[in-house]
Amino acid sequence: MPLLQRAGRLDQRAFDAVAAARLPGFEYVLPRLSRVADHSLLWLGVAGGLAVTRQPRLRRAALRGVFALSLTSPIANLVGKQMFRRRRPLIELAGLPTSVGRGTALPAARVRWRLPTSPSFPSGHSAAAAAFTGALAMEAPASVVLPVAAAAAGVAFSRVYTGAHYPGDVLAGLALGAVAAATTRLVWPTRPAPAGAVWSMPAEAVQGISSDGAGVVVVINNDAGGGDVTRLLRAELPEAEIVEAGEDLGKTLGDAADRATVLGVCGGDGTVNAGAEIAVERGLPLLVIPGGTLNHFARAIGLETAKDAIEAYRSGAVVRVDVACAGRRLFLNTASFGAYTELVDLRRRMENRLGKWPALAVAAVRVLRHTEPTEVYVEGRRLRVWFAFIGNCRYGSYGVAPTWREHLADGLLDVRLIGAKRHIGKSRAVAALLIGHLHLMPDYKTWRTTSLRLSGTDGSLHLACDGELGTADGPVEITKKRAALAVFGPPQVAEPSRRPLPEPPAEEDPPSA
């Protein structure tokens, strides 16, 4: 107890020092800042502002910040305060003279509009500020984090300056918020840096890169937000030719490639996939301009926005990455079969009426209720499968649905599937797919290989390549074309190097049935 008493006295002296401090202007600013932060409204407002931007990185940061708040608030306000029940500092309110600590009077101008009646330890405002800022710092750039961190520091100090908390309450709240922010990574890992191990070939860098975009032909899918990109391209690369994608995307891309020294594509992963196929066929470097909802491939090479793509082009940094082929179809991210193909098919049939995300939710419910396992031959073995994904290169994320890679030219296919044994129901398979912790699934299989043979038991197989559906008649051989696609990437990814293409890691055998 002497240690606690000593800490209490130290806390009181620190509070008295703050109460005695006179900081011109802060009597007006800090009480209002403290009030704005009530019920985490300040942080929810910041999250809302980030969410309405079109930058995936900022949207992820906002979502992580709200997630951290949802963890912190119940612990601080429902558990911590009720467990310790520390009384708040005495303050002057409504003109009643009240001494603070050892007789230091707290100026009435600092007093909040309403005296808090809940226990003092820990500070919920400080916990929320630290949780949101810490989570934001895991995803957002410094230009966004620093102003938010300054506001968080102001909120934490205001809790002492306005007489609502002792300094010890604030420090405990900050520590709690920091732990909550770190805990979000256990449930939702932060997005890694761009695939820095991409094999680069400076000798193949495009000669004569023009700052005005001469020789660049960009095919834009206007359904993927092409209007804003068109305006940006015309401002930044005025000599680039901009072509709207027609009904026959392949023909439009082929015609564009005939006139291009650099082929550009703006759209989602399906559009980029089609552009990559033409670029590989014609031996052209590909300029990927993110314009879809998820932009998996663009983000894998470090391009979050159209502006990032323009800077990558001007840098002349060209890297080479693997492509995978399912028969004649090419994919850069994943191919899939099973219930996922039904999900994509249903979503596309409804998205014109409902919108993409509502259609996805409705499709997920219908698939959960009505879908049946897919029977397929995998390397000659007959399997019943709920979900299956084949990734282009090794994926580092957990779960059946791959999300990020460390290397884009390793020569491997990453195979993941959830089988459908009798005791494994749809609900459990879907839960595993959503949560991602598939080590709990007894019929989850994963292995790496350089090729894969598939065939449907009825002679055909529905296969989605980067989200684009198709049907393969007869057996399908999934293979790799190593370092076949030249693509512009950020300079930090495409570091100059003449090192040889590394040998792929050892191939793994499929697990036994």
TrEMBL record:
Record-level Gene Ontology MF annotations: hydrolase activity; kinase activity
Species, as recorded: Actinoallomurus iriomotensis
Superkingdom of this protein's organism: Bacteria
Pfam family name, one: PAP2
Keyword terms of this UniProt record: Cell membrane, Hydrolase, Membrane, Transmembrane, Transmembrane helix
UniProt protein name: Phosphoesterase
Region of interest called Disordered, as start-end residue ranges on this chain: 488-513
PROSITE patterns: DAGK
UniProt key word Membrane: yes
Domain DAGKc as annotated: residue spans: 211-330
Keyword Transcription: no
